[in-house]
Specification:
The protein has helices at residues 3-10, 12-19, 22-29, 34-61, 65-92, 97-101, 107-122, 125-146, 161-168, 170-190, 196-218. It has 221 residues and is mainly α. It binds 5-(aminomethyl)-2-methylpyrimidin-4-amine (NSP). It comes from Luteimonas composti.
């Protein structure tokens, strides 16, 4: 069984509370209030800036070029692809990149991102990748859940079609598959039975911080 599957099993309650959060259900059926989505998306842009730093830290922690390339793929997926979605949507709301970057970070954004950076600073590459896993692999799972037949099957006037299409789409799914394969590779090299409980604790905390991030969006109502 992959490390992801074992972590999900061991932290099932925290994982399910994250991937099946009311915010996610509202995205799926289109009932999420627009203000909540907007608040979330602006904070998510700030979140991604810090997560890009965490992927850069993974490159710094890498002892091989192959690990460095895998870390670079995660960084590029954020700064060259994912953040463009945010800027496209923000532009439609009359917000420039400078406006978004000038927005103060919410406590939930600070809590999650700085904790991941701290795990990366104090732990090894496996600890850091486990802390990053709910981010990439969680959104890939959510994308598949919200568009089981692919994003083209969503109603053309679905208010969150573009967001869902980003995470259900082939490009994001391929990044997630690469991250999952890298996680198993790191586990083979650095993991052990003795380390597993500590990895579960990191994974579960990241899943709870993800759920807290959704809740921050909902609380904007
Ligand atoms: C909070 C959060 N978690 C994960 C992702 C997917 N990169 C995201 N954009 N934002």
């Amino acid at each position: 069984m992959s490390l992801l599957e074992r972590l999900k099993q061991a932290a099932a309650a925290d994982w399910n509370a994250y991937v099946d959060h009311a915010f996610v259900r509202g995205l799926g059926d289109g009932s999420l209030p627009a203000d909540c989505f907007r608040h979330y998306l602006v904070q998510d842009y700030l979140f991604l800036i810090q997560f890009a730093r965490a992927h850069a830290l993974a490159a710094c922690k890498s002892r091989s070029l192959s690990d460095m390339r895998a870390a670079k793929d995660g960084l590029a997926a954020i700064v060259d692809v994912e953040m463009h979605l945010h800027l496209r949507l923000c532009e439609r709301w009359g917000l420039s990149a400078a406006d978004v970057e000038a927005t103060p970070e919410h406590a939930a954004t600070v809590a999650y991102t700085r904790w991941v950076l701290d795990i990366g600073m104090s732990g090894d590459l496996l600890d850091l990748q486990v802390a990053l896993t709910p981010c990439t692999l969680g959104y890939a799972e959510i994308g598949r859940r919200l568009a089981p037949a692919g994003a083209t099957a969503l109603a053309p006037d679905h208010p969150y079609r573009e967001w869902i299409a980003e995470y259900a789409g082939d490009a994001f799914q391929a990044v997630a598959a690469g991250a999952n394969a890298w996680l198993d590779d790191l586990d083979r090299r650095y993991g052990s039975q003795a380390r597993f409980p500590e990895l579960v604790a990191i994974f579960a905390k990241a899943a709870r911080l993800e759920a807290g991030f959704w809740q921050m969006g909902l609380d904007a109502r």
